[in-house]
Write a structure and sequence with these properties.
The structure holds two protein chains of two kinds. By secondary structure, chain A is mostly beta strands. Chain A is built from no helices and eleven strands. Classes of the chains: A mainly beta, B mainly beta.
């Protein structure tokens, strides 16, 4: 079945970097964009960016420009999200999510149809 | 960036109630609106895409409507497993895929 398996929880010190992985299975990895979304404790969902696993092209949210790097390894169908210069307010659950699409009479529609279970990142000195 | 708002931010309802959640975009997004359900400690789950299309496997008691700037998610008869937080998200402007702040549905 289609699934995204994320790496385990991380504990990092302020100023450090964290790299989260997301392994895809059950579908053609290079055929779908991969998004990253985070959720701070008790807060809503925040879109961080996306990567085209086929080309490696990325789009990042303005809030994370300069601190986030999204990459992929097509040989093992895995996407990565690295966040640098961690701060206490980066403590959150980080999700990867596949971008699905559907062609309808009015055009193509996009959504996040498959999600990983999330990776908890704690930032503490 | 397109901003998304939701109302109410929370609501209390009973099993069997009809529940309606509203989402508003800061500019017209046609029908490029998705709804997700999230339960505590779990990843979000896609319910509705393109404003009114039910994702495969989602119960028919969920429905979506609207276009332009105003959208609604309706649960026709609330079930115990529907107590969760619901988020809208626009995909009209790809960057960023903005989410609404969420609506928490809990038990009255």
């Amino acid at each position: 079945q289609v699934q995204l398996v994320q790496s385990g929880a991380e504990v990092k010190k302020p100023g450090a970097s964290v790299k989260v992985s997301c392994k895809a299975s059950g579908y053609t990895f290079t055929g779908y964009y991969m998004h990253w979304v985070r959720q701070a404790p008790g807060q809503g969902l925040e879109w961080m960016g996306r990567i085209n696993p086929n080309s490696g092209a990325t789009n990042y949210a303005q809030n994370f420009q300069g601190r986030v790097t999204m990459t992929r390894d097509t040989s093992i169908s895995t996407a990565y999200m690295e966040l640098s210069r961690l701060r206490s307010d980066d403590a959150a659950v980080y999700y990867c999510a596949r971008e699905g699409d559907r062609r309808m009479p009015a055009g193509y529609y996009y959504y996040m149809d498959v999600w990983g279970k999330g990776t908890s990142v704690t930032v503490s000195s | 960036d397109i901003q998304m708002t939701q109302s109410p931010s929370s609501l209390s309802a009973s099993v069997g109630d009809r529940v309606t959640i509203t989402c508003r975009a800061s500019q017209s997004i046609s029908s490029y609106l998705n709804w997700y359900q999230q339960k505590p400690g779990k990843a979000p789950k896609l319910l509705i895409y393109a404003a009114s299309s039910l994702q495969s496997g989602v119960p028919s008691r969920f429905s979506g409507s609207g276009s332009g700037t105003d959208f609604t998610l309706t649960i026709s008869s609330l079930q115990p497993e529907d107590f969760a937080t619901y988020y809208c998200q626009q995909s009209y402007s790809t960057l960023p895929f903005t989410f609404g702040p969420g609506t928490k549905v809990d038990i009255k």
